[in-house]
Amino acid sequence: MRSRTDAPRHRDVPRLETVSMWFTGFVVTVVLLAGVVVFRSRLYEVRLLTLAGIYGILAIGLRLTLGELGELNLGHTAFYAAGGYLCALTVKNGGFDPAVGLVVAVVAASVLALAVSSLTIRLSGPYFAVAALGLIPVVTSVLLAFPDTTGGSFGLSGYGGGVTSPLPLIGLTGPRAWLIFVWGLAAVAAGYDHYLRVSRFGRSMNAIRQDSLLFTSLGYRVAGYKVAGVVISGALAGLAGGLIALFEGNISVAAVGLPALLPTLLVIVVGGGTAVPGGVLAMSVVMTMAPEYARSFNEYRLIGFGLFLLVLLRFYPAGLGSFSVRGIDRMVGRWASRRGGGSPVGGVSDLESVAGGDVTS
Amino acid sequence: MRGVTKRFGGVVAVEGVDLVVGPGEVVGLIGPNDAGKSTLLKIAARIERPTQGSVVIDGRRTDRMMPASVARLGVHYGFQRTRLLPELSVQDHVAMALADRRVVPSFLSFGWIHRTRSADVDRALTDFEITHVRTQAAADLSFGQRQLLCLAMASVRDVHLLMLDEPLAGLSGESIALVRRSLDLLVSTGVSVIVVEHRLKSLAAICGRFVVMDRGRLIADGLPDEVMGRSDVLDAYFGGGTRR
Predict the structure, then answer these.
(1) DSSP letter string, A79-112
(2) Weakest-pLDDT range from A191-205, A326-340, A346-360, B196-210
(3) Nearest-CA distance A238 → chain B (Å)
(4) Are B69 and B164 contained in the same domain?
(5) Do residues B114 and B151 share a domain?
């Protein structure tokens, strides 16, 4: 029997991830507080913040495949488009409740993700990225091929969605109710993302990212984990698609297909795709709000944005999310060394690699 | 393993190899560089697929199976130059070798180390004398520690066929004795072992049988002393016999 005292405790949740959870909570709280402040100001900002929440959910889905599985899924917004259109069609043609539309959006995007990931399972790296990218024109063409159902290039509208429509499930109305509803879902998505990171499933995805051949040679079926990862990511994109269709009250391929891809990529790269969902959410707020506030600077705002990206990625290549993580990490490290303990394990390992022990072979 | 041939494009890496390894047998697979030793092990582990020929492990034909399924039969391949996940800690590596392989249950448990198996992880770390580095990331280990970790991972699995690609490279005398003790322990439970190694003296102390490959073919098979006395083996291995 092993006594409780002498055995070192297994650290199941490394500190970095605990910090990431704090940061997520921090961001969500700040945004909600901002929302409360905005309650007394313009509806326009409430609307932008709500959009930021929806983009955040979309980006968290993409972060999951890039950050954990190490695969860049350039077809991510095809799931978003499919979810959005199917949600709108369920409400418009089926006459169902918007809540049913959301469920249909999630299920449809998951099924599409399952099909695509099963077909591309042997691909990885740039090959997977390009194969996945091919999905967007396929989905777009299918949507444009049936203008009687999908409205062609004009898209769908007039199905009762929009910012003044009642919320799915809850039935409350008003832009502020939408804001809280969407950010509630974004918080759930971020929490789920964190849960996946610390679960053995997340660890397995991480192992695949680091060395899938070693993982296979231990008897793990890489394909199963990869497909499951892409399906979860697709489900989040479907949820975001359904939300955007309901919130905007219209949907067209010009808004949800290829044009949505680049901003989403930017959000996860700058937000910290491999680090924390909180950074991703923060960046989606920045990306949505900043251009609006910077409108008075005209073309200078693009230069400013470019400079912001360059400087940020030069000094914080791990993205916005690593801001707080590093600060807190250093604080905890200093505190630990003052108390005579060594540097704790599990921090930002690329910078503060733990000193090696004695070689006693 | 019968009539196994592997071609990479026009290059023949392994040609018509027949090899039978009995339960509890320790075979040293030796030969000059590029003789096809590692390729042969990879074919047996189904990491490579043979161009021709068949592989049967525990009565089941494995050359058409999925790599992960072959691994689940109890086949363990220890990669050359120790393949580990750089960001993962030592104890998590051992736990990963122990953990449930199924996808769905993996959603419901946290981390690699399962409560019920943590004693097994501790035992393996103690057996291979790497307890003091258990929380270090694999990237921060010395080469010898990496080798020991690879063996610890193999030891916790339910292994029937263990294949090690240069497991003694970078190990000191004490560690070699440690590897030898653990191999003896595994062999006593009926595990078959194939070891590729260039340190022939140490290898001869571990193995009861040497198999020699040269340019993709099997050229000799027998007791270590017997095999190393043959002139064709010496020619192939040392290019005309410079030193033993």
Answers:
(1) HHHHHHHHHHHHHHTS---HHHHHHHHHHHHHHH
(2) A346-360
(3) 21
(4) yes
(5) yes
